[in-house]
Design goal:
This protein has a six-stranded mixed β-sheet, with helices on both faces. The chain has a three-stranded antiparallel β-sheet with strand order 1-9-8, covered by helices on one side. The chain starts with 6 loop residues before the first strand and ends in a 5-residue tail after the last strand. With 179 residues, the protein is an alpha/beta fold. The model has no long low-confidence stretch (mean pLDDT 92). Helix 1 crosses helix 2. The chain has a single domain, classed as Rossmann fold. It is globular, with a radius of gyration of 16 Å. It binds guanosine-5'-monophosphate. Guanosine-5'-monophosphate binds next to strand 5, helix 3 and strand 8.
């Protein structure tokens, strides 16, 4: 895979990812002391981050997953979101922490937040690994952010192009078609 010409320069290295996730885990552990947060992963992109983040949190956490699909081209979201897989658990009175891979326009997250709030949770906060600088069309109101990155299309560490590259252990730019 390393000789793939579409894999561009590294944006966030493996070391930086792991160090920041340790910090985020410590912060979440202290903020949610005495509670058992429900981590809601947004599939598929968040599965790698969620797995590392969860192991950095020293609390009794629970897990659920949602899959959404946004209409639009391969590299741009349109803001129209459809739930492809819904949660299994009831959110009533739960402290929900949404785990997102990347916030671009923020439209996917705005939709998710509205949708989850309507289910009667005690709280809904968001932990996003990556936020693209300057692109948000709505205020994403993020409690935890891993890294702010330039507005380029990136792959790796859960992020794909046509289901490839999710297993790269770092985040890098994509040099292929549509980028
Ligand atoms: P938003 O609704 O914030 O514009 O887009 C969020 C979703 O678009 C992310 O959850 C992700 O699936 C996809 N996305 C946005 N930017 C990128 C990117 O740079 N690379 C990849 N692979 N997906 C992206």
């Amino acid at each position: 895979m390393l000789d793939d010409p579409n894999i561009g320069p590294v944006v966030v290295s493996e070391d930086k990812l792991q160090a920041r996730i340790t910090e985020l885990g410590e912060q979440i552990t202290s903020d949610y002391q005495g509670r058992a947060p429900l981590l809601v992963g947004v599939l598929k992109g968040a599965f790698v981050f969620m797995s590392d983040l969860a192991r950095a949190i020293n609390l009794p956490v629970e897990f659920d997953f949602m899959a959404v699909s946004s209409y639009g081209s391969a590299t741009k979201t349109s803001g129209v979101v459809r739930i492809v897989k819904d949660l299994d658990l009831d959110l009533t009175d739960r402290h929900v922490l949404v785990v997102e891979d990347i916030v671009d326009s923020g439209l996917t997250l705005a939709y998710l937040r509205r949708n989850l709030r309507a289910r009667g949770p005690a709280s809904v906060e968001v932990c996003a690994l990556l936020v693209k600088e300057g692109l948000q069309k709505v205020d994403p109101d993020l409690r935890y952010v891993g890294f702010r990155i330039p507005p380029e299309f990136v792959i790796g560490y859960g992020l794909d192009v046509a289901e490839r590259y999710r297993n790269l252990p770092y985040v890098c730019t994509y040099l292929g078609e549509g980028s």
